[in-house]
Design brief:
This protein is about 40% helix and about 20% strand. It has about 270 residues and is α/β, with parallel strands linked by helices. It has one domain (about 35-270): Rossmann fold (3-Layer(aba) Sandwich). It has an 8-stranded mixed sheet with strand order 2-3-6-4-7-8-9-10, with helices on both faces. Strands 1-5 form a two-stranded parallel ribbon. The longest helix is centred in the first third of the chain and has 33 residues, at about 5-35. The protein starts with a helix and ends with a helix.
Length: about 270
């Protein structure tokens, strides 16, 4: 190659490298906008579903609004930490499924979702989850051993953290979880080098799994187009609890697992069936 040709090649490589760095900088700056998609509008009126609208404060002094139905006859209480999009109103059907059997159900809302103040982040979600758990335990006098921690998609992050902090919980249910947000980012953006060091919110569920002491159920769909179901397989292998189960629903995607019987599977697991 001639000197001029080598020079031209170096210029091309420089521009490619410069373009790559600009994309990386953009991805880093925008990552929370890519990760969280909150909605402030509600699909349903809670009063029409006999749901109590409740509030509690986080450790960093945010007042969060969530939705709650009390249990009947000292039944266990589910606390749901939902996925990265929409808000609690999109999950009322899950609440209704369990409350018709007498379970209590707290649709725990995050900061920045459903008209709540603040902006989503990993540490923020953990604060929000603690506030929800403490509200149940301290205000509603629900013993920790009666609480079922339920995490959906990115909600598997705060659910896993709560399972480590509230070890006496009755059970942990993870629906379409990931091993970690950094591992998922590597799956989605394999060309993004050093993603582990560039991700703000890591949600390292797999590092916490060895400390899960309560019964653990993971429900996945084998056609999940958002989080590959192999994440669930790896996560269940890391779980330290002697009582653990992975259910892979054939044909299930990411947000349609209830159509494949996921909620019934969860109830049977809780009831030892």
């Amino acid at each position: 190659m001639s000197k001029a040709g080598r020079k031209r090649m170096m210029e091309i490589l420089f521009y490619i490298g410069e373009g790559y760095l600009l994309i990386v900088v953009f991805m880093v700056m925008m990552q929370r906008h890519l990760m969280y998609h909150p909605s402030q509008s509600f699909d349903v009126n809670p009063a029409m579903h006999h749901i109590d609208v409740i509030t509690y404060k986080t450790a960093d002094d945010l007042s969060l609004t969530s939705w709650y139905i009390s249990p009947k006859n000292n039944m266990p209480v589910f606390v749901l930490f939902h996925g990265n999009a929409g808000n609690i109103s999109n999950r009322v059907y899950k609440q209704e499924f369990f409350t018709k059997s007498g379970y209590g159900f707290l649709l725990a809302e995050y900061r920045g979702f459903g008209n709540n103040p603040g902006s989503p982040s990993e540490d923020g979600f953990y604060n929000d989850a603690r506030a929800a758990m403490n509200w149940l335990i301290k205000t509603q006098k629900i013993d920790e051993s009666r609480i079922i921690i339920y995490g959906e998609s990115i909600g598997s992050g705060p659910a896993s953290q709560m399972a480590v902090e509230y070890k006496k919980a009755k059970a942990l249910i993870l629906e379409a979880p990931f091993t970690s947000a950094t591992n998922l980012a590597s799956d989605i953006y394999p060309w993004l080098l050093a993603v582990k060091f560039l991700t703000f919110d890591k949600y390292d569920n797999i590092d916490k799994a060895a400390y899960f002491s309560m019964p653990v159920l993971i429900v996945n769909g084998d056609k999940d187009s958002v989080i590959p179901y192999v994440h669930g397989e790896r996560l269940i292998q890391a779980v330290g609890s002697p009582i653990k189960k992975l259910v892979t629903l054939k044909g299930g995607n990411h947000t349609d697992l209830s159509d494949f019987g996921a909620l019934g599977i969860m109830q049977n697991f809780i009831e030892g069936k």
